[in-house]
Amino acid sequence: MKQTIKLLFAVLTLCVLPYSTYASDTVETHSEEEFDPMAMIMHHIADAHEWHVISYNNSEGQKTDITIPLPIILIDDGLQLFMSSAFDHGKKTVQQGKNYYSLYHGKIYKTDAEGTLNFDDKHEVLNEKPFDLSITKNVASMWISVLIIIGLFTRAAQLYRKEAGAPKGIQSFLEPLILFVRDDIAYEQMEKEKADKFLPFLLTLFFFIWINNLIGLIPFFPGGSNLTGNISLTMVLALITFFVTNLNGSKSYWAHIFWMPGAPIAIRPLLAIIEFVGLFTKPFALMIRLFANISAGHIIILSLMSLIFVMKSLAIAPASILMGLMMFMLELLVAALQAYIFTLLSALFIGMAVKSEEH
Amino acid sequence: MEGLSLTTIGLGLIIIGAAYGISRIASSAMEAMGRQPEISSKIQTAMIIAAVLIEGAALFAIVVVWMNG
Fold it and tell me: Which residue from B minimizes the CA distance to A340?
C-alpha cells in the first residue's frame, strides 16, 4: 500500500513538474463586480487554454491568479506554437509571423494588431477561428489520468507475474473491479469465448471513464477539469463503441437490420429504416448520457456553492456546504454508475452484434 | 435564468415524465425480485438497462431545452 501511494505520488509529481516551473502570478485590477453565477459555472465546466490553480487577494487587495500556462498549437499558415501565458489571461494579443491571435472566453480568434473583435447582434464573435490543436486543460487532465491508469495497472500486472496467491496491495483493489466487469458485464451480455475478445476494450472503457469522473470531482489542482462532461470526449468514446460494434457485426446482425427475418415482407423496409436510424441513436445516446450526467453534477455542486455569493451572507454557508457535501457523495456514486452504464451498454451493443445464429 | 419561463416549465415536465417511467420500472423490478429472489441480479441488470433508456430520452430533451433556452 505504501509503495502504491509512493507510486501515485511520483506519477502525479511527474505530471505537474514540467508545468509548475512556469507557474506565474499576474496581477489583475480588483473590481467590485456583481457576482454572476452562470458565468462562474460555465467558466468552471468549460475547457480552457490555461489551468487555473488559485486566486487570492494580495497585500494591496488586488486579485492575483496563479495559473499554469499550457502549450498552444495552431494550424494556420503552418504550425504556430507558443505558451498560453503569452495571452496574459486574454489581455494581450499574440503575434506569430504576420498573424495576430486573441483569447476571448477561452477561444482563440484571429485579429488585427490591436486585438479587435467584431460581434454580431447576438454578441457572437465574427472573427475567424484558427484550427486549434492545443494541449488544453482537458487534454492535460486526460494525460494525467492515463498516467495514473498505466501506473495502477502495470503495478498490478507486475504483482501477478511475480507470484500466484492471494492478491495483495493494489491487486486487492483492482481484482474485484476487473472480475465485476468480466462476470457481471461481459459474460452476462455475450458468449464467453467472444467476451474474452472484447474484455480489454470494456475494461479500458470502465476504468478510463471512472477514473476521469473521479478526477473531475477533485475541486482543486490537479483535478477539477470537466473531462467526462465534455461532449467531444464522450463523442469519441461513443464513436469507438460504434465502430467496435459495427465492424464486428455478424451476418445475422446485419440481416436483422436490413431485412428482418420473420417479419412480413411489407413491413421489412419500414423496419430497415428504423433499425438503420437505431444504429446511430445508440452511440448518440451514450454520448449525451455521460456528458449530461457529469456536467449536471458539476453544475449542481457549483450552483450550491454560488448560493453563498448570490445571497452575500455567511449564514448560508453551512447549509450550502452541507448540501454540497451531499451532492459530492451522490456524485461519487454517479461517477461509478455512469462508468458501469457506459460499459454495460457497450457490452450489450457488441453482444447483439456478435451473437451467433443459434441464439 | 430569469423568472419562470416556458423552458423551466418544460424541464419540469421532462423530469415528471422520466421520474414516473423510472419509478414504474423500479417498482415492478422490486416486485419481481420479491417473487423470485434467486434471479434478482438478472432483474437488476434489466432494470438498469430500461431505466437508462428512459434517462437517455429525458436527457435528450433536457439538452435540447438547454441549447434553446
Answer: B48
